[in-house]
Amino acid sequence: MTKRFPRKKFVALWLVCLLLLMPAVAKADVAQIILLLRNITSTLQNGVGQVLSGIHSIQTTVRDFEQQVVWPVTLISQTRGFVGQVRAQFSSLAGQIHSIQTNSASLVNPGRLESLLRSRRAGNLGQISASYTQVYQSPPQTNQATANQRNLMDVDDALALGALKTATVSDQASEQMLSVADGLEQQAAVSAPGSASILTAQAQAANLQNQAMLQKMLAAELRQEAARLAHTNALRKQSADATRDLRNNMQQILSRP
User: Fold this and answer.
1) Residues 111-140 pLDDT 10s
2) pLDDT tens per residue across span 148-157
3) What pTM value is reported for the model?
4) What does each C-alpha distance from 135 to 79, 86, 112, 151, 236 come to in angstroms?
C-alpha cells in the first residue's frame, strides 16, 4: 500500500501540471493564428490591394474612354432615337403603299392569271402555265398553221412564261429583302456598341442577294428582247420566202404559151 501511494500521487501531480499548462498552450496557438491573420490582411491591403487598385483604375479609364470616345453613349442614344423616329415615320407609309390593290383585270381567267402573277409566291409557278394557256390560248394544230408559225408561237409563249415566272420569283425575293431590311432596322435601333460591323456584314450579304436577283431579272429581259428581235427577223424571212414563191409562180404563169 505504501508503494502504490507515491505512484498515485505522482500521476495526480502530473495531471494537475498538464491541466495547468494547457490554457497557456492554447493561448499561444490563438495568438499565433491572430498574428498570421494580421499578416495576411496586411499583405492583401498593402501588396495585393495596391495591384488590384491599379487594375481597377485602368479598367475605369478604359471604360470611360470607350463610353466617351470610341462609343459615345450620348451619340449612340441620339442615333437610336433617330432611327426609331425614321422607322416609325416611313414604316406606316410603306405599309400603306404595300397594301394598295393594283389588280385591274375584270374577267375570270385574266383575273386569275393576274392574281397568280401578283401573288409573290414561287409555289404558284405550276398554276401560271395553265392560267396563261386559258388566257392566251394554246398553239394551233398542225393543220391550222405552218410549222414555222407554230414554232414562233411556241417559243414566244415559252419565253413569255419564263419572264412572268421570273418576275413572280423576283417579287417573292423582294418581299424577303424587305423583311431582312426591316429586321436590320430593328437591330440597328437596339444594337449594342461595337456590333455595327456585324449589321454591316448582314446588310452586305442581303445586298448581294438582291443584286443576284436583279441580274436574273436583267437576263430575263435581255432574253425577251432577243426573242422579240428573232421573231421580227423570222417574220421578215417568211415574207422573203413568200415573195420568192410569188415571183416564181408569176414567172411560171407568164412563161406559159
Assistant:
1) 999 999 988 888 888 899 999 999 999 988
2) 889 989 999 9
3) 0.59
4) 53, 44, 9, 19, 28
Look at residues 75, 222, 92, 231 and name the one whose alpha carbon lies nearest to residue 151.
231
- Pick the closest to residue 125 from 158, 155, 169 (CA basis): 169
Question: How remote is the C-alpha of 240 from its chain's centroid?
Answer: 56
Among 198, 215, 204, 216, which Cα is nearest to 177's?
204
Sign of the dihedral through C-alpha 225, 226, 227, 228: positive
Cα separation, 231 vs 217, in Å, equals: 21
Q: Which residues in the chain come in under a pLDDT of 50?
A: 1-5, 21, 24-26, 28
